[in-house]
Amino acid sequence: QAKHKGKSAYAHFAPEMTEVSHERLQMESRMRRALELNEFELNFQPIVDTDSGNLVAAEALLRWNNPSMGMVMPDRFIPLAEETGLIIPIGEWVLQEACRAAVTWKETTGRDIGISVNVSPRQFRDPGFTSTVLNAVSSSGLNHNQLELEITERLILDNSIETAEILRQLDDAGVRLSVDDFGTGYSALSYLKSYPFDTLKIDKSFVQDVMKEAEDASLVRAIINMAHSLGLSVIAEGVEEEAQTHFLKQEGCDYSQGYFYSRPLPTEDFETWLKTTQRLQQA
Ligand code: C2E
Ligand code: MG
Ligand code: MG
Ligand code: MG
After folding, report:
1. What is the pLDDT of residues 13-63, one digit of tens each?
2. Minimum-distance ligand 1 atom for the alpha carbon of 73
3. Three-state SS letters, 131-172
4. Number of H helices, E strands in the chain
5. For position 154, what pLDDT does the model report?
6. Residue 165 CB: number of other CB atoms within 10 A?
7. pLDDT tens, 165-222?
8. Distance from the CA of 14 to the center of ligand 1, in angstroms?
9. CA pair distance 9, 192, nearest whole angstrom
């Protein structure tokens, strides 16, 4: 009894910071080996045409399958990968793997399916970023306009000449650019007219409540109209219910993504999904 008490007292007084930084260091050293140990995998989530429900693209979503930690989701490790710079080699792997997957789908289905890849600020600011992207596209044999890079408003916030220049280079090369999590980051909208974006992805926090909150419905409607008048297409993220799809159709939202259509799927499951839905779509 006394022993037990002593132990928990000790644990209680253990400096919290030490524990946190130990965990961080351990995660960092595991992450350093994860690429060579092949622990990363991509899941793919369908992006469909809102009107028809037909697949047009997929978003590549990173997973880290580590023997001691299990399946680690990106929100748990991307921030550390950013801080340590490991996101640069990891992000390069994601780009190559994603482009290769889309080329495989072309071979198996005969269809040009777009592939969207998330890019974090540290990756984007790396001097080799543009050539990493273009290499991944050309070495896989993908069409440039089948790749869409998803960039958050947080990244655009710096408003620097470098950001503008990189976006211009990628756009000139024919790569598509989208604003991810639109509406959550940055309220000034002027960047939309000066940067060559193709697509706005409406953040799921707005989409989630379109049927419950009149304000959210108004915001989504306004974003769709604004995007269209600027010549951008719109993807609604986080579509979970059928009622939302009716709303989005009615408001003219071009594309939709969310659990209602499919969760992000491991490669094999995505390919099965592809074959099944393709058969249905052709029927
Ligand atoms: P994101 O790019 O906004 O991706 C969408 C997230 O919403 C994904 O979470 C997806 O699983 C989830 N989601 C999709 N449909 C629904 C739905 O209907 N309801 C709900 N509640 N959620 C839905 P995930 O896979 O955990 O990824 C989280 C974030 O991690 C991503 O947000 C993205 O910012 C980042 N991320 C993922 N993969 C990569 C990557 O390869 N590189 C970088 N830099 N970031 C990545
Ligand atoms: Mg995204
Ligand atoms: Mg363009
Ligand atoms: Mg998003």
Report:
1. 556 667 778 889 999 999 999 999 999 999 999 999 999 999 999 999 999
2. 26
3. HHHHHHHHHHCCCHHHEEEEEEHHHHCCCCHHHHHHHHHHHH
4. 13, 10
5. 84
6. 11
7. 999 999 999 999 999 999 887 667 888 988 999 999 999 999 999 999 999 999 999 9
8. 35
9. 56
Ligand that lies nearest to the alpha carbon of residue 176, given by its number in the listed order: 3
Q: HEC string of 187-229? A: CCCCHHHHCCCCEEEECHHHHCCCCCCHHHHHHHHHHHHHHHH
Average pLDDT, the chain: 92
Cβ neighbours of residue 40 under 8 Å, at least 6 residues apart? 34, 62, 63, 64, 65, 90, 93, 94
CB 48 within 8 A of CB 261: yes
Residue 238 in contact with ligand 1 by CB distance below 6 A: yes
- Name the token pair of 222: 């306004």
CA of 121 to the centre of ligand 2 (A): 13
Ligand 1 atom at minimum distance from 259 CA = 18
Q: What is the number of residues in the chain?
A: 283
Given ligand 1 and candidates 237, 240, 257, 269, which is best to mutate, with the most ligand atoms within 8 Å of its CB? Answer: 237
Residue identified by tokens 């989005």 is 248
116 lines ligand 1 (CB under 6 A): no
For atom 33 of ligand 1, the residue with the nearest CA is: 118
Pick from 83-92, 105-114, 182-191 the range whose average pLDDT is largest.
83-92
Return the exposure string of 92-113: e unless at least 16 CB atoms fall within 10 Å of the residue's CB, then b.
Answer: bbbbbbbbbbbbebbeeeeeeb
- State the closest ligand 1 atom to the C-alpha of 61, by its place in the atom list counted from 1: 38
